[in-house]
Specification:
mainly alpha; two-stranded antiparallel ribbon; 15 helices; 4 strands
Length: 382
């Protein structure tokens, strides 16, 4: 058995993977069944608007996983991951815009409506190829990955770390937001890309398409989780953990700190791009506000609340915080930002390991209590 096969077998034979598979299948099947199989008026029927909303949460969970990989395991606190998410979204939005064709407001067979409105005469060269789905998918991972690789190579080779790196990543996404706001940038300016018609020939507004996008998002989340789990349980994952805890010692031992950081940062950006690509057809728009530094900070809060350095915690934090955001922005919109700030401060002070760490402490406490029970040793030995 090769080392790769051994690691895959060990990964898939762990006791928790049965529960993981059951949760993934349930998440992919229960929501469509509740939306389509139950009659209107049934108390358990899921409204149509909830399907893309839950799909958006799943995309956010993929983004949280991406940040947790580089922050929770490699110690790279990026406050600019919203840029990679938005770039993936723009790549998918460009494909969707090319599919509109003559059904746009101006009926131009090639140029999107915003280009016709701004008197563009021809399609920019960087829009070529986005009429093909495979090309768009390739760009979804290559564009964020290339940006992360170049940025990370320059930063990590210069040994920029800690708060300085966080500030630079935040400056990166802010600069990109300002650029994408410009009409002459070729991405729709402040309005962004919207009014999508179809995806692979399917109406993006149809219920079946929305369900398909939700299921695709769940499958992507499951694959992203497996990929991250494989990385963090490998030898490279142990090097990443050592980097997080004692970077200077790892460098002294002869490991390539730049290469390990660059791999984690680039892979994380590519996962964020996939999340953005799945997000856009479900919400129906992509604009420069997705580059906002506040969005990237919010992603860090999801990971901190769920539990940094625990992949399950990152997913849990993304779902819980966004459920709270949806409810609070409807019930008390003026309170939401205060709640988010208080949540981050409270987790930092009282739950430094997040909800996942709290659950681990609870399980450890139960185990210790069981071992202290009279007769527990005899029962265990038996």
């Amino acid at each position: 058995m090769t080392p790769l096969t051994f690691r895959l077998a060990r990964l898939l034979d762990a006791r928790g993977w049965a529960a993981f598979a059951a949760i993934a299948v349930a998440a992919a099947m229960v929501v469509p069944l509740l939306n389509t199989a139950l009659p209107a008026g049934h108390p358990l029927r899921l409204p149509d608007y909830m399907v893309p909303l839950l799909g958006k949460y799943v995309c956010y969970a993929i983004l949280a996983l991406a940040l947790d990989l580089c922050w929770g395991y490699a110690g790279i606190l990026s406050l600019g991951h919203g840029a990679f998410f938005a770039l993936g979204g723009y790549c998918m939005g460009m494909y969707l815009m090319r599919q509109i064709g003559t059904r746009g407001v101006y009926g131009h067979p090639v140029l999107p409506d915003f280009m016709v409105f701004l008197n563009w005469k021809e399609l920019p060269a960087y829009w070529y190829g986005f009429d093909m789905f495979w090309y768009a998918l390739l760009m979804v991972v290559l564009v964020p990955g290339a940006l992360a690789f170049v940025f990370g190579f320059l930063a990590f080779r210069s040994r920029v770390t800690g708060v300085y790196l966080s500030i630079i990543t935040q400056a990166l996404t802010f600069a990109m937001m300002l650029g994408f706001f410009r009409n002459n940038f070729g991405f729709g300016g402040n309005n962004g890309l919207t009014d999508f018609k179809e995806l692979l020939g399917f109406d993006v507004q149809a219920r079946s398409t929305r369900i398909g996008l939700y299921v695709a998002s769940v499958l992507a989340l499951a694959l992203a989780f497996l990929a991250c789990r494989f990385v963090v349980t490998s030898k490279l994952g142990r090097v990443m953990l050592a980097l997080r805890d004692a970077e200077s010692r790892v460098r002294f031992l002869g490991y390539s700190v730049t290469s390990a950081k660059l791999f984690a940062f680039t892979l994380s950006a590519m996962l964020a791009g996939v999340a953005g690509a799945l997000y856009v057809p479900q919400v129906g728009i992509i604009n420069p506000s997705e580059f906002s530094p506040a969005n990237s900070i919010e992603v860090a809060i999801w990971v901190a609340v769920g539990g940094r350095g625990t992949l399950v915690g990152a997913v849990l934090g993304a779902f819980l915080v966004n459920f709270a955001k949806t409810w609070l922005t409807g019930a008390a919109p003026e309170v939401w930002l205060f709640f988010l700030g208080a949540l981050f401060i409270g987790v930092t002070l009282f739950l430094p390991r997040g909800l996942a760490g709290l659950a681990g402490q609870w399980r450890a406490g139960l185990g210790a209590a069981f071992r202290r029970r009279p007769g527990a040793v005899e029962a265990r030995d038996a």
